[in-house]
Amino acid sequence: MHAELICFERSCRARYAITAVLYNCPQCGGLLEATYTGTMPAAEDLKRTWRARRLDNSPLEQSGVWRYRELFPFLDDYRHVVTLREGNTPLLDAPIAARYGGLGRLTFKHQGFNPTGSFKDNGMTCGAAQAVRLKMQRVACVSTGNTSASMAAYAAAAGLQPVIFIPHGNISYGKLAQALEYGARTLQVEANFDQILALVRVLAERLGIYLLNSINPFRIEGQKSIMVELMDQRDWRVPDWVVLPGGNLGNTSAFGKALREMKALGLIDRLPRLAVVQAEGSAPFYDLMRQPGGARLRAVGHPETLATAIKIGDPVSWPKAIEEVTASGGVVEKATEQEIADAKAQIGLCGIGCEPASAATLAGIRKLVAAGTIDRDADVVAVLTGNVLKDPDYIYRYHTGQLKDPHGETLASTYGNQPIVVPNDPDRIAALLG
Ligand code: F0G
């Protein structure tokens, strides 16, 4: 297969070498994506090959990303691959959450089972492999916490030096702790995510550092594997809906691209509809979808949400995301802080758990079912993007009635579960539990 980078803008479509260090089209400024030409194996052969690889113990085949490499053949040498055995994330039935959402049945694809606890690992293994191939020494990203945790781990594993930029005071300690533990040079900038992204782009160019934000097309290629693995796990039965949280909109772009490509190859016979859910205080994509066609995204200057992973006011991948959501017949919803917090507690009661941004999915499903957009009998998969332990502070505050929204208002501890302090006295404890 021959791989190239191509400008995503329809009016441009300029092409560049797959080894060019570019994040935007030099001609028009558009987003770039990887594109491939050549003959692909038949769909049935691909399905058989991918299934057989699950029994192979080599690191490449044990990776739930690289196992599907025929769908993102951008490397010419798989010795560049850096894998922590990412992907391989489960599909979990969640009856309590289904009932809460108003559905007969709901399945979660839980990306929090990844090595660093989020879906970023699916993309980072590809981004890191490309960095190694390009003989880069340093890699950088701005992050609301998960990208930085993931990049730090993969860079460390690959022998690259990670430099991360995070908004000071606005990421959870679980995520910050990971970056420190994996040895990343960590800069806490006194600015928000969107401002820091602009800063990092300038610095990456000036210092020759390889940028591993989701604007990097190879990250998107890796995140496609989430949809491929999902379909493989479902024996290629396409769900009616795939629901995911939206922040910088890299994942929305990756899922849409994967689904279109799988359909074009005959791996699936139709597209599921994408439902993207944003937090109400950081919902520029929700607003954009309500504008007439051809409108441009209007950034939210001061994005706010306790779901810090999706606290992004100016998502870079919106031009891709809008095309993907539209092509799938999808929708964009938004959820309040209270709705996200309560949905999260319900996911917890399934024995599953997730971080706040991930719970936006269930909060959105509940609203979309109530509005009649999602049918009660629909076959729905929601993608939980991050692990429950990413943000324990939020959980403790919710369950003890101390969780305050960004305006300082205390949220209701609707499904709260207070820990109880007891004396070291068997009689009194027995009486309490009796
Ligand atoms: N869920 C979680 C847990 C995330 O960490 C992110 C993004 C999203 C959802 C949104 O995904 O940006 O592809 O729309 N986190 C990024 C970060 C921005 O820096 O870790 P998206």
Key terms:
single chain, 434 residues, alpha/beta, six-stranded mixed β-sheet
Tell me about this structure.
The chain is an alpha/beta fold. Among the domains are: 1-39; 91-116 and 218-399, 3-Layer(aba) Sandwich (Rossmann fold), CATH 3.40.50. It has helices at residues 43-53, 59-62, 95-101, 120-133, 146-158, 173-181, 193-207, 217-233, 250-264, 284-289, 318-327, 337-349, 356-370, 392-399, 426-433, and strands at 2-7, 15-17, 32-37, 91-93, 106-110, 138-142, 161-167, 185-189, 210-211, 241-245, 273-279, 331-335, 380-384. Helix 12 (337-349) packs across helix 13 (356-370). The longest helix has 17 residues, at 217-233. The chain is globular. The model has no long low-confidence stretch (mean pLDDT 97). The protein binds ligand F0G. Residues 118, 120, 143-147, 214, 245-252, 309-310, 355, 357-358, 385-386 line the site of ligand F0G.
The helix content is 25-40%
The main sheet comes to: 6 strands, mixed
What is the CATH architecture descriptor of the domain at 91-116 and 218-399?
A: 3-Layer(aba) Sandwich
Bound molecules: ligand F0G
Number of strands: 13
Which residues sit in consecutive blocks of at least 5 with pLDDT less than 50?
none
What's the end-to-end separation, in Å? 68 Å
**Could you give the order of the helices and strands?**
EEEHHEHEHEHEHEHEHEHEHHEHHEHH
If strands are numbered along the chain, what order do they take across the biggest sheet? 4-5-13-10-11-12
Radius of gyration: 21 Å
**Content-based structural category:** alpha/beta
Mean pLDDT score = 97
CATH class of the domain at 91-116 and 218-399: Alpha Beta
Globular, elongated, flat, extended or rod-shaped: what is the shape? globular
CATH topology of the domain at 91-116 and 218-399: Rossmann fold
